[in-house]
């Protein structure tokens, strides 16, 4: 606050419906996203309680921007990331302030534009081998299929190492367990997370399994399987700023684990929602598929094609808006922060929801309607503070361009080969207990698309 012209801090409102002893546990666990969305309009910051534990929710785009960008130095990553160190160690995903900045400098070369362009060709190759194995008329558990596709495309593309079937099995087994357990790291008190409960033991075991798998992948690079320009090779050759010290094998492993989870879970979730929405809206699907056919004509989708896939981009943007994968994130105030007269106390644990932000009716008319045309050239595009599916500021997802390439290539690769319809009787819901906002009960039936294929072009 300005000492010469002090501002009287406003009281932070408490969300209605608090129950003595329980706080807001009931609405949080019944439908956390609906509850968080309901807080919009109560103020830029709203206090909720999980039992006796107070949490502060930033609800407006201005407050979220202030926390992530303007006053980012006054916040650490918060309890989600602190409690996730059992999986990710002290990696880019969990680090704050100068440690985050230094680690980002080490990893950034792996995601430069030239590198992403080169990786795009690998992505297509690995995706095709999985997608061409689908059986016409079968019923695909599509979320599971997209997670398998994500892992099988990302691991060889980013890490470019020969690895055994045992390593692959470990990754496939551990990732969904970790995705389910991460929400507990936010919503449960620390003493519950320390208890020898089955859920806690399972989570820690999955974390160990995933870290072991990537320990093997790092070891394979040392055994002579380094590939020029892949992520682990970049990390193995990186030198710490100022120190001249290379990363240890455990530090390389932790960075690789963090990036795998970000590159596979969030993309798989988005792809699942994308093809669900296309199956729900035949007129949108027709435009989407027509553009894929017109631009690619059956040839592989490469980075150079992205600017021509205008409607595909609009559909993906709308999918990321309505179904933002990372629906709950955290920060912790390291000092008291004045939000234009609303004083957030030092040590406050803060929640923010990008999903709730992107469903705010004050920002998006008819927010529950899936409308790719809201991103059309004749529409007013929301401000940069109102649409941040990959985050914002210094902690914005380092692999956002790679994730976008993964989604564009995956969407076009599928659409050039298969039409996907809901299996009869399918009823799609929305997960409430996972780190990403995934669809539940999504089963799709593939029908092969036949067309004249142009001669393949370079990616």
Describe the protein.
The protein has 17 helices and 12 strands. The chain has 459 residues and is of the alpha+beta class. It folds into 2 domains: 130 residues, Uridine Diphospho-n-acetylenolpyruvylglucosamine Reductase, domain 2, CATH 3.30.43; 315 residues, Cytochrome P450 (Cytochrome p450, Orthogonal Bundle), CATH 1.10.630.10. A 5-stranded mixed β-sheet has the order 1-2-8-5-3. It has a 3-stranded antiparallel β-sheet with strand order 4-12-9. The longest helix is centred in the middle third of the chain and has 32 residues. The N terminus and C terminus are likely disordered.
Task: Provide the fold topology.
Elements: H1 25-30, H2 32-38, E1 45-50, E2 53-58, H3 61-70, E3 75-76, H4 79-83, H5 85-88, H6 97-107, H7 113-131, E4 140-141, H8 142-159, H9 165-187, H10 190-193, H11 198-225, H12 231-237, H13 249-280, H14 282-296, H15 310-322, E5 329-333, E6 337-339, E7 342-344, E8 349-352, H16 354-357, H17 400-415, E9 418-422, E10 429-430, E11 439-440, E12 443-448
Parallel strand pairs: 2-8
Antiparallel strand pairs: 1-2, 3-5, 4-12, 5-8, 6-7, 9-12, 10-11
Helix pairs in contact: 7-8, 7-17, 8-13, 9-11, 11-13, 12-13, 13-14, 13-15, 13-17, 14-15
């Amino acid at each position: 606050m300005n000492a010469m012209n002090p501002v009287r801090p406003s009281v932070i409102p408490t969300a209605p419906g608090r129950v003595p002893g329980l706080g807001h546990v009931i609405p949080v666990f019944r439908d956390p996203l609906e509850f968080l969305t309901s807080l919009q309009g109560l103020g830029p910051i709203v206090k909720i309680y999980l039992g006796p534990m107070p949490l502060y929710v930033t609800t407006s785009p201005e407050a979220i921007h202030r926390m992530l960008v303007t006053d980012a130095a006054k916040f650490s990553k918060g309890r989600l990331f602190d409690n996730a160190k059992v999986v990710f160690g002290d990696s880019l995903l969990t680090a704050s302030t100068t440690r985050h900045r230094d680690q980002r400098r080490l990893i950034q070369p792996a995601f430069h534009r030239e590198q992403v362009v080169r990786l795009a060709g690998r992505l297509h190759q690995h995706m095709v081998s999985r997608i061409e194995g689908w059986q016409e008329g079968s019923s695909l558990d599509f979320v599971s299929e997209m997670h398998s596709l994500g892992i099988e495309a990302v691991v060889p593309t980013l890490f470019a190492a020969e690895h055994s079937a045992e390593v692959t099995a470990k990754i496939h087994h551990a990732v969904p367990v970790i995705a389910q357990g991460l929400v507990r790291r936010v919503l449960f008190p620390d003493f519950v997370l320390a208890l020898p409960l089955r859920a806690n033991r399972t989570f820690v075991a999955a974390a160990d399994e995933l870290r072991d798998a990537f320990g093997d992948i790092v070891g394979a690079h040392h055994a002579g399987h380094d590939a020029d320009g892949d992520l682990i090779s970049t990390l193995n050759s990186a030198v710490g700023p100022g120190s001249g010290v290379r990363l240890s094998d455990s530090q390389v492993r932790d960075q690789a684990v963090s990036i795998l989870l970000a590159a596979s879970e969030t993309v798989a979730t988005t792809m699942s929602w994308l093809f669900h929405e296309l199956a729900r809206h035949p007129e949108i699907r027709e435009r989407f598929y027509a553009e894929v056919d017109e631009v690619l004509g059956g040839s592989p989708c490469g980075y150079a094609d992205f600017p021509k896939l205008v409607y595909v981009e609009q559909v993906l943007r709308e999918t990321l808006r309505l179904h933002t994968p990372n629906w709950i994130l955290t920060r912790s105030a390291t000092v008291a922060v004045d939000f234009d007269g609303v004083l957030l106390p030092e040590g406050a644990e803060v929640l923010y929801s990008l999903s709730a932000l992107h469903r705010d009716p004050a920002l998006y008319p008819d927010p529950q309607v899936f409308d790719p045309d809201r991103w059309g050239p004749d529409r007013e595009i929301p401000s940069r503070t109102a649409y941040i599916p990959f985050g914002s500021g210094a902690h914005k997802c380092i692999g956002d361009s790679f994730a976008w390439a993964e989604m564009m290539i995956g969407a076009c690769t599928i659409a050039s080969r298969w039409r996907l319809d809901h299996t009869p009787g399918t009823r799609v819901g929305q997960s409430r207990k996972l780190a990403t906002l995934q669809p539940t009960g999504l089963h799709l039936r593939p029908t092969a698309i036949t067309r004249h294929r142009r001669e393949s072009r370079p990616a």
